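Please review this one.

:::
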Amino acid sequence: MTAPRITHVAAGILLRPDGTFLLGSRPAGKPYAGYWEFPGGKLEAGETGLDALKRELHEEMGITVTAATPWLVQTFTYPHATVRLQFFRVTGWDGEPQPHEGQSFAWQTPGALNVSPILPANGPILRGLALPPVLALSQADTLGIDEWLARLDRRLAQPAGQGGLRWLVLREPQLAAADYRALATEVLARARLRDCRVLLHGDIELARELNADGVQLPARIAASLDRRPRGLDWLGVSAHNADELAVARRIGADYALLGHVAETVSHPGQTALGWNGFAALTDAGWPFPIYAIGGMGDDDVTTAQVHGGHGVAQLSMAWSKA
């Protein structure tokens, strides 16, 4: 059987500082006319994805891209074509978008779209945009449960965008099962009052039982699965290499943690990936956001994004100023 011919496309997610992003409608005369999508177009011979993105956004809407970083790669088969879409996060541009091809534009908020229908290939992209640039992991082990819960409360009480915590992975491998269950129950009760999503670590059945928002799986547990666990809204996978990222893709993970990127006290004697190693792995093109983990501070978010990541995951740094 002959493999389908793949059309390579670059697409831009224009992001404003408030987190809203731009969708455009497909003009009349094109397949899926009237559907909403992220603007972009086909790569021409010899073009890189970024070159094509800059050209297409200038032709389609008259803007000049000044800041863009690679993000996700999505391959999708439509009745008329198989496309490989390379998505870029566009955070800087000159000019205001103008409908040069008769399309319409609409600024949207993650999780609260007011336009439809959406082009099918963009579904996973919209889901990824709901993820924060900084993902916090709990630290009750070193801080003590009472002290960590106090810091958790302070972060939950802060407004979103001003240090307020809205995503948390409860990772406490040192706790006995009964103690972890008790802590998870307490954390979920507090987080729900502040609209914070909580993912449990490693325990799929407990996440289902307590109605957690999802689960973060170590690489060894993820590798033992043949499909995405049912009944969970969000699924994250920890990875250290391309094989483990491939497992995350196979079981339909929503995101992956990749590291460790920098030297950390928790990984003595283990060689860090470094940013070049991180970029070499993200450059393969994955259909989900990837967080850099291991010694990451707030200042590393931009560096992670430049190297193909979505942002950073933090352990101690998440609670150092709480």
The mean pLDDT is 94.
